[in-house]
Design a protein that fits this description.
Layout (H helix, E strand, L loop, with lengths): L1 E9 L4 E8 L2 H10 L2 E8 L18 H16 L4 H11 L3 H15 L4 H6 L7 H13 L2 H58 L6 H15 L1 H19 L2 H13 L3 H22 L4 H10 L4 H15 L5 H7 L4 H13 L2 H60 L1
Antiparallel strand pairs: 1-2, 1-3
Length: 407
C-alpha cells in the first residue's frame, strides 16, 4: 500500500486535491470516479523519513492543537462545509507536522468511504476512545458540530486539571533537585577542604556532628560511581516499574492514600470521572459504553477497577450508585448525588454539577498545597545546607572559644 497525491476535477469543474492510500494509480482513479471526480494526475508520494526517539518522545500532539482543531472543525461543520473540505483546510494550516500528516490520512480515509469516526480511530495516539466515540455519537445523531464544541470544552477542562497537578509538583521537585546538587557539591568539594584544614590544625578529636559529616563525605567519594549509578537506576527504574501492570496498581493505590497529596489526587480523579461520564451521557452514548470509555481514560487503576465493577453490576440490572458505593473509591456525597441523578433522570446534569464542584475544590486544594509546599521546601533545603555548614564550623567555634579562654 502506497500513498498517492492526486488532483482532479468535479462535474462542476471544481479543482480538488488530496492524498489517498492505494495499491496502484488505477485504483486511485477508480475511487475518485466513484466520488464524481475525474482524476487529472496522480503521483506516488515518497516515504517520509521518520526518526523514532526513545520512550515515544516527540511523537505526540499537544492538547492545545487538538482543542483548536476541534473548535475550528465544529465551526466549519456548523457553517455547512463538507467534512473532506474541512479536513483539507485544517490539515494544510496545521503547524504540527505529525498532526498534519494524521489529518491528511483521515481525509484520505473519509474520501475512500470511511466514516469520520472510523478514520479517527486509526490514530489512537492522537484521538482517544473518548474522542472517537463522541464523534461517532455526533455522526449518528446528526449533531456533530455541537458534539465537537462540547468535546473541545471537555479537553480544555481536562488540560487545566493536568496543568494544575504539574504546576503543584514543579516547585517541590525543583527544590529537591537543587538540594541534591548542593549536597553533592558540598560533599565533593567543600568538606574535603575543611577536613584537610582540621588535620593541619591538629587539636584532637572533632565534634561528633563534624566527624559524622566527614565520614559521610569520605564514603560518598569512595563509592561515588556506585551512588550515582544507584540514583540513575532509581530515576530510570521507578518510572519503568510504574509502567508495568502491578507497579501501576501499587503506585495508584499509594498516591490516593498518601498524606496531603492523596486528598488532592482523589478530588482530581472524581472531577475527571464525573466530567467524562457527564459529557458522554449528554452526547447520547449508551451507559455501558460510556463507563468502559471512562474506565479506560480514568488514569488511575483504582478508579478503573471501580468503574468496571460498577459497569458489570449495571449489566446485571443494578443501578450505578450502589456498586460505586461498594467500591469505596468515591466519596459518599458523590455516590449519593449520582443516585439522585438516576432517580430524577437527570444523570448528565448531575454529573456536570459534581464535576464543576470538584474542579473548584481542586483549584482551592492545589493553591493551598502550593502555599504549604513553599515554606516546607525552603525549611528542608535550609535545614540540609545549614546543618552541613554548621557542622563544619563547630571545630572553628571550639578553637575560637579555647583561644579566648586561654587569653
Amino acid at each position: 500500500m502506497a500513498q498517492f497525491a492526486w488532483e482532479g476535477r468535479t462535474r462542476a469543474g471544481e479543482v480538488r486535491k488530496g492524498v489517498m492510500d492505494a495499491e496502484a494509480e488505477p485504483e486511485v482513479a477508480n475511487r475518485l470516479r466513484s466520488q464524481g471526480i475525474t482524476m487529472s494526475k496522480a503521483k506516488k508520494k515518497a516515504k517520509d523519513i521518520e526518526i523514532k526517539l526513545p520512550f515515544g518522545w516527540g511523537q505526540g500532539v499537544p492538547e492545545k492543537d487538538i482543542v483548536v482543531f476541534t473548535r475550528q472543525f465544529a465551526t466549519m461543520i456548523d457553517a455547512g462545509l463538507p467534512i473532506v473540505q474541512c479536513l483539507d483546510i485544517l490539515a494544510s494550516q496545521s503547524p504540527n507536522k505529525i498532526f498534519q500528516k494524521a489529518l491528511f490520512d483521515v481525509k484520505a480515509q473519509v474520501e475512500s468511504g470511511s466514516t469520520f469516526s472510523d478514520a479517527l480511530k486509526k490514530h489512537p495516539r492522537i484521538f482517544d476512545d473518548l474522542y472517537t466515540n463522541l464523534v461517532q455519537a455526533g455522526e449518528v445523531g446528526g449533531i456533530l458540530d455541537s458534539i465537537l464544541t462540547r468535546l473541545a470544552i471537555y479537553i480544555e477542562k481536562a488540560s487545566k486539571l493536568k496543568s494544575q497537578v504539574k504546576g503543584a509538583m514543579v516547585y517541590p521537585i525543583s527544590i529537591l533537585v537543587v538540594a541534591v546538587l548542593v549536597v553533592v557539591v558540598i560533599m565533593w568539594k567543600v568538606i574535603p577542604v575543611f577536613e584537610n584544614m582540621f588535620k593541619d590544625f591538629g587539636g584532637g578529636a572533632l565534634p561528633k556532628p563534624t566527624q559524622i559529616v566527614i565520614d559521610i563525605s569520605n564514603a560518598f567519594l569512595d563509592h561515588f560511581v556506585i551512588i550515582m549509578g544507584s540514583l540513575a537506576a532509581i530515576v530510570i527504574g521507578v518510572p519503568a516499574a510504574i509502567r508495568t501492570k502491578k507497579g501501576r496498581a501499587l503506585f495508584d493505590k499509594f498516591i490516593l492514600k498518601a498524606p496531603i497529596i492523596g486528598n488532592v489526587m482523589r478530588k482530581i480523579a472524581v472531577a475527571r470521572f464525573t466530567r467524562t461520564m457527564g459529557t458522554l451521557m449528554a452526547s447520547g452514548v449508551a451507559i455501558l459504553d460510556a463507563m468502559e470509555i471512562v474506565a479506560k481514560t480514568a488514569g488511575n487503576v483504582v478508579i478503573h477497577d471501580a468503574v468496571m465493577y460498577a459497569r458489570q453490576k449495571i449489566s446485571e440490572g443494578k443501578n450505578m450508585a450502589e456498586p460505586l458505593m461498594e467500591t469505596k473509591a468515591f466519596p459518599p456525597m458523590v455516590v449519593q448525588m449520582i443516585g439522585v441523578g438516576e432517580q430524577t433522570g437527570a444523570m448528565d446534569a448531575m454529573l456536570s454539577k459534581i464535576a464543576d464542584f470538584y474542579e473548584d475544590e481542586v483549584d482551592v486544594a492545589v493553591s493551598a498545597l502550593t502555599k504549604l509546599m513553599e515554606p516546607l521546601m525552603m525549611v528542608f533545603l535550609g535545614g540540609i545546607v545549614g546543618g552541613l555548614i554548621i557542622s563544619m564550623y563547630l571545630p572553628i567555634f571550639e578553637m575560637a572559644g579555647n583561644i579566648k579562654s586561654g587569653g
